[in-house]
């Protein structure tokens, strides 16, 4: 989520940008985004692991074998934190104003230590919201998360309803979502080396299901049934991307259903597919940015999309799903250009030089 801002600031030669990776086991320096940004010689890349990392790794392995990974994340993992001494060793230029960016609250141990370090040194603290909350939410006054005294918050209006109240009444709010800026979207095509596919067999139809965690919001049976039945369409190859946080699909599928692994990233899946089918994932905005058709599996989830401009993409049952898939297969547009623009503006904010505006607002704040 922070990659677009890191990249934009790294272009400015007057900026001293340091990437601090606190989850090197989840995202490595070989990640295409980090590798691309780090090409700039002015960028410093640092990895900071948890205290007692080996103990954490053993616990994670045991819980994964028993398929109870939730308990590791919820209890054991939340106990092990990060050493403030490692943060103190980060090569900050003391004479320059320093800004730190985080995408989580104090329930994340790395953020807890980073904020303590920032407050100790009077750094500017910026919260860049991790997600966009694509579905309808009501203001929740009983959110248990603790929000530090951030100076700047980058988020969209819909997500704000789902965030805790910020303690700093003078906080500067920037309503934008850097991840979904058209500038960064074009840069991602360059990073992942995606080019227009002219050699693909026209007869093969490729729908892609981008799954969210089941929880109690999505109907697992209906979604798995939809995947299986869509695979029955003649000359069809179905791509299924499980949720990135350890989702395991063990359901038997026909041979023309392909389960994406970690190496098959979301961007490439969208590029290779003819339509993106989803319930609660914000990945649909990446598809819209790339002008790909999308279908919201409304009948298989309890959530409703916040943007009314996506009403044309909703399906009320499996029959409706097949009607829309058939229309897409034969070249019909599911949404208009105006609906596309309205949807992007609703979720991501005005995209007119979005990254430049965010960068300038942060610079104005510290000057």
Summarize the structure.
The protein is of the alpha/beta class and 367 residues long.
Q: What does this 3D model show about the protein?
A:
The protein is built from 14 helices and eleven strands. The radius of gyration is 21 Å and the shape is globular. The protein has two domains: 3-48 and 83-181 and 351-366, no CATH class; 197-347, Rossmann fold. A five-stranded parallel beta sheet has the order 9-8-7-10-11, with helices on both faces. It has a four-stranded parallel beta sheet with strand order 3-4-5-6, sandwiched between helices. The two termini are 25 Å apart. It is α/β, with parallel strands linked by helices. The relative contact order is 0.11.
Blueprint (SSEs and pairs):
Layout: H1 3-11, E1 18-21, H2 32-37, E2 44-47, H3 53-65, H4 69-79, H5 84-88, E3 99-102, H6 109-120, E4 124-128, E5 152-155, H7 157-160, E6 172-175, H8 182-191, E7 207-210, H9 220-230, E8 238-241, E9 257-259, H10 266-272, E10 275-278, H11 283-289, E11 294-296, H12 318-329, H13 337-348, H14 354-366
Parallel strand pairs: 1-2, 3-4, 4-5, 5-6, 7-8, 7-10, 8-9, 10-11
Helix pairs in contact: 1-14, 3-4
